[in-house]
Amino acid sequence: MITIGITGTLGAGKGTIVDYLVQQRGFVHHSVRQFITEEIVRRGLPVNRDSMTLVGNDLRAKHTPSWIVEQLYQQAQSSGCNCIIESIRTPGEVAALKQKANFYLFAVDADLRTRYERAVLRGSETDHIDFDTFAANEQREMSNTDPNKQNLGVCIKAADYTFNNDGTVEQLHQQVEQVLEKILPHRPTWDEYFMELANTASKRATCDRGRSGCVVVKDRQLLVTGYVGSPAGLPHCDEVGHLFRKTIEEDGRVTNHCVRTVHAEQNAICQAARRGIALDGATLYCRMTPCRTCAMLIINCGITRVVCERKYHAGAESEELFRQAGVQIEFFHNEVEQYDNQ
Question: What percentage of residues in the chain have a pLDDT greater than 70?
Fold first, then answer.
């Protein structure tokens, strides 16, 4: 879980970033502006920029420079979700939040005239002002030696990531997305998840000429696993050595294949047969394109999708068999696996 704070100049696009994070990335929104607005209403004051500054500064002076964002941060932690705290304006707030784990400060800026026009279109309670007032309000908040009071200049300089919003909304979204790819923990897709399980199964392999594994899945439920190894009860290659057979490939190369072992895909299908597990409509995950024999078994047992990390250099025949049988085959990478001993 991460928390993002947003600072920036007036009308620069803080709300636009918030909307993107909430709608596209599922963040929970907490707003300093809203927190102070609720206090303004409670005190019976008019909701305008002067009241925002007055009440915000008063709360910080009565408590601590970071008191407001500390309240919001606690709410964020309680939610258990990725959260965003909008409208951070004081150095004290920045200093406090920078001490928190997994906190990042975003800043956004744009041309002054452009920002004013956006603020007028936004039309919130604090935006019904002329351009000169808008510029004066911002200048008042750009620098202040009191840590309890607004200092956007210091906050922006302290940001971990700064965005320019002179362009389109889509361009701003692209900037934000590039940063999110860096800071958000990667949650694996289902294909990545099951491929990792296949790679884990490969660690049980007993032939160092081809340590591969596979898993067979249906409806996101693991059905069976398999890894390369000798038939049950026979010596492992790792213990007694390999039994090679020379094969002439289609391109004329002579390769040595270990024929003592059963391939991972074959072992998985055998496990399913022994346990009475139907594989119709299932997906098989493996390291590289299955060999011709494995491909035929995969087709006959009803598996309809095969996902491989890489292509096998001699896998064209298997790919054609899958195509003819209507079995979908996909690859994580277009790299060709040069290893030719399974």
Answer: 89
Alpha-carbon radius of gyration of the chain: 30
* Beta-carbon count within 10 A of 285 CB: 30
Residue 199 host element (H or E): helix 190-202
User: Which of 289, 291, 299, 308 has the alpha carbon at shortest distance from 326?
Assistant: 299
Q: What does the pLDDT look like over 105-121, one tens digit per residue?
A: 999 999 998 888 887 88
**How many angstroms separate the CA atoms of 257 and 210, rounded?**
10
Residue 84's H or E segment, with its range, is strand 83-86
pLDDT in tens, 143-181: 777 766 788 889 999 999 999 999 999 999 999 999 998
- In whole angstroms, what is the distance from residue 34 CA to residue 27 CA? 17
pLDDT value at 70 more than 80? yes
CB 321 within 8 A of CB 292: yes
pLDDT digits (tens, 9 = 90+) for 279-314: 999 999 999 999 999 999 999 999 999 999 999 888
265 is catalytic: yes
Q: Give 262's DSSP letter.
A: B
| Per-residue exposure over 245-266, b if at least 16 CB sit within 10 Å of its own CB, e if not | eeeeeeeeeebebbebbbbbbb
H-helix or E-strand containing 108?
strand 103-109
* Global pTM value: 0.55
Task: Please tell me which residue in 86, 138, 265, 309 is annotated as part of the active site.
Answer: 265
Strand partners, 109: 164
d(C-alpha 152, C-alpha 165), whole Å: 16
